[in-house]
Amino acid sequence: MLTGPAHAAGAAYVALGDSYSAGNGAGNYDSSSGSCHRSFSAYPYLWKKAHAPSSFADTSCSGAVTTDVTNNQLGPLNSSTGLVSLTIGGNDAGFADVMTTCVTGSDADCVNRVNQAESYAQNTLPARLDATYNAIRAKAPNAKVVVLGYPHMYTLNVFCVGLSNTKHTKIDEAADVLDSVIANRAAAHGFVFGDVRSAFKSHELCSGDGWLHSLVISPSWESYHPTATGHSSGYYPVLNANS
Fold it and tell me: Which residues contact 2 (CB under 8 A, 6 or more apart)?
């Protein structure tokens, strides 16, 4: 892993990634970000406010997959970039469709769709992550790169109106598989993996703590994303501890 003064707090910081980086669900949206739904309450802006980096850019965007990061988000990176953060991979593996299937379908439908997503994560996603991570390193050779994972969605084995415990368990299993793949590839590139599952533990859906949205009718794109509290109490501390 690269070390040096460029990694100190206050270094130029660039945030990349998907809706979990952009802050879908956190409210306080930047109207200029359009359908990317970037939030001033998301963890990148919380880090910016706390550390006053010499420069800050946020190119994260709702719905992004690995190729979107590579093709559309790397413009602000350069040799002076000291810190890069991102969440990516969930959309590649079809996590939004997993949640839709599990909410609307049977237990068997949910299990089958999660199995498909896990197969993709294990067999196809690694090469996609490698290509994106290589592109980040090429553009920001001196940066510390913190790859943040995804939380479990549900606190298990508690009474919770809605999906069955079978579905809750299978959805959390999918997050474990996805995080394992991301952590493995991040380590292979000398990046830091920020595991948010421990931060969110006992604060997931069914806990009543309001760190995650369940199904949101309007705007629907906030569904199954961290709230402002999820960013400030979950994601931000993990980034801060690893940056």
Answer: 141, 142, 143, 144, 190
